[in-house]
Amino acid sequence: MPETYQIGQNTLVVESDTLYLTSVGPFLPADAAQYCRIAERVLQTYGEVFFVTDLSQAALMPSQTRRYLAEWSRQYRAKAVIYYGASLPLRAAARLLLNAARLFSGGERAAELFLDSEQEARAAVARIKAARSPLPPA
């Protein structure tokens, strides 16, 4: 059963190992801290986490938030980071954040996608999960 959280102006829905965030306005450092605590719990429970974020109502995040998320990625890693509904400036900012996170994390790289809709994002998560699953016995 999905869990729903209000994080500042943002809404987070957790469906097992996948976090669906609707970002509204700037994502503040306190928002990032709460989001990351939930992501850590999901990682402990499922061993992996997928991030899907609706940026259609988002604003650029403050530098402190970007720094916090980049630092968080030193210790933790998502299997996929998927954005949808992003304007061109938000896509550019998200790319910078992903690049910083990649530099800090070193190892395995998460799938990174920019899509148009939640439906496409959900389909992408399903494809990524299916690609890593072993085939059932014949």
Task: Explain what this protein looks like in three dimensions.
By secondary structure, the protein is α/β, with parallel strands linked by helices. The protein is 46% helix and 28% strand. The protein is built from 4 helices and 6 strands, in the order E-E-E-H-E-H-E-H-E-H. The protein has helices at residues 29-46, 63-75, 88-105, 118-132, and strands spanning 3-7, 10-15, 18-25, 50-58, 80-84, 111-115. The chain is globular. It starts with a strand and ends in a 6-residue tail after the last helix. The relative contact order is 0.14.
Q: Brief overview, please?
A:
The chain has 138 residues and is α/β, with parallel strands linked by helices.
